[in-house]
Amino acid sequence: MTRVRSVLLGILITLAASSPVMAQSAGSDQAGMPRVNLISTNPIGIIFEWFNAEVEHAVSPTLSLAVAASRFEFDETITVVDGIARYYPTARAIRGFSFGGSVGYAGVTNDCSLCENNDDDTAFTVGVRGDYVWILGRDQRFAVAGGIGAKRLFYSKDNTFGPEGLPIGRLSVGYAW
């Protein structure tokens, strides 16, 4: 049970520190240039050796697809990879408010060779999220994003549900093109 709590805490911290990539609208920005791609990270997490990155691409004015990956260490090494679909109701994909869902993988590797419980574990994840992206600057290339959401984990070992819900958060900076 302690290991599960450690894994969940690690995933929570990673996801809270994770930064999805922000991209601007599939339309034109203020400079008349389309911004359909965004790459981002959480610079504060890097200080604590919590690494994450996200790449987002607008596939239409209202829909974007993203891939986010995170990795951090406590007693275990935790790796999280998510596929994210976001709906932008204002039809300015990668800019403004979005509501979306995610599916992904969370893997835990116990790096302690002397520990009693040295089991590795994986979980399939499903989540929902709300995000807001600002594309800033004269050239409309600098992005700042924030968001909140929740995930449920399905463990591979016993095929059971995870906790009631795992909250996630996002604060990141990035580059749009």
Largest sheet: 8 strands, antiparallel, barrel
Order of helices and strands: HEHEEEEEEE
If you compute it from the alpha carbons, what radius of gyration comes out, rounded to the nearest whole angstrom? 17 Å
Mean pLDDT: 79
- In percent terms, what proportion of residues is strand? over 45%
**Distance separating the two termini:** 45 Å
Shape: globular
Helix/strand class: mainly beta
Number of helices: 2
CATH architecture: Beta Barrel
Strand line-up of the largest beta sheet: 1-2-3-4-5-6-7-8
* CATH topology term: Porin
Query: What assembly state would you assign to the polypeptide chains in this entry?
Result: single chain
- Which consecutive residue ranges, at least 5 long each, have pLDDT under 50? 14-32
Please give the share of residues in helix: 10-25%
Which class in CATH terms? Mainly Beta
- How many DSSP-defined strands? 8
Quick take:
With about 180 residues, the protein is mainly β. Helix content is about 10%, strand content about 50%.
Task: Describe this structure as you would to a colleague.
It is a single chain. The chain has a single domain, classed as Porin. The chain is mainly β and 177 residues long. Strands 1-2-3-4-5-6-7-8 form an eight-stranded antiparallel barrel. The longest helix has 16 residues. β2 and β3 form a beta hairpin. Helices cover 12% and strands 52% of the residues. The protein has two helices and eight strands.
